[in-house]
Write a structure and sequence with these properties.
By secondary structure, this protein is α+β, with helices and mostly antiparallel strands. It is 20% helix and 19% strand. It has 4 helices and 7 strands. The strands form 2 sheets. The chain has a 4-stranded mixed beta sheet. Bound molecules: FE2/S2 (inorganic) cluster. The site of FE2/S2 (inorganic) cluster (FES) has 11 residues, from helix 2. The site of FE2/S2 (inorganic) cluster has 11 residues, from helix 2.
Length: 182
């Protein structure tokens, strides 16, 4: 009897040989459900293998790939008006690519980018919020800073921002929203 295993499917297909088929009144195939033969290997954005049933939970905690660790967390507004100001571009994706080039997507000075809905500060669009992880090595003076007009930033400006943040420099060259303005 020939046994075929369908790759990446939790199924056995058992094919009945010709002689047996001949005896049977009609051709048939038997499907047998099996728990799992070959699991899909899912990888999270840090490159770690993910626990089955999860989207990003790593199977093995690797300090060089800390999915939850960051020094600085930047929330990029993807609300309707900010998105429109950026001509619908995927700003967060682009920023993650820049961070990879700077090697700031991992390690002790990791900068994490997250997408956000509308902050209710649309008149300052595009808007981003910077959160420093003061439970770790975050730099308090740069905590809870609201940047405005980020849709005008080019790659050079983003690199300047990321370097300033990772080197704990104040962000005097960046337009900020005063909290009282919101
Ligand atoms: S759409 Fe960005 S703050 Fe409202």
């Amino acid at each position: 009897m020939q046994l075929n295993i369908a790759k990446n499917r939790a199924l056995y297909w058992v094919k009945v040989p010709y002689q047996v088929k001949k005896l049977a009144s009609k051709r048939f195939e038997v499907k047998i459900l099996k728990e799992k033969i070959i699991a899909d290997v899912k990888i999270n954005i840090m490159g770690s293998e993910v626990v089955d049933g999860f989207i990003c939970k790593p199977k093995k905690l690797d300090p060089n790939k800390p999915i939850m660790y960051f020094k600085t967390h930047i929330f990029i507004c993807e609300g309707e008006r900010c998105k429109k100001a950026s001509n619908g571009k995927d700003v967060s994706y682009k920023l993650r690519e820049i961070l990879k080039k700077l090697n700031l997507n991992i390690g002790i000075n990791r900068i994490k980018i997250s997408r956000s809905g509308c902050f209710g500060a649309c008149r300052f669009r595009g808007v981003a919020n910077i959160y420093e992880n003061t439970n770790a090595n975050g730099y308090l003076p740069n905590n809870n800073i609201w940047l405005k007009n980020i849709h005008n930033f080019n790659e050079k400006k983003w690199i300047e921002l990321f370097k300033n943040l990772s080197e704990n420099q104040n962000l005097n060259n960046f337009q900020q929203i005063e909290i009282t303005q919101i």
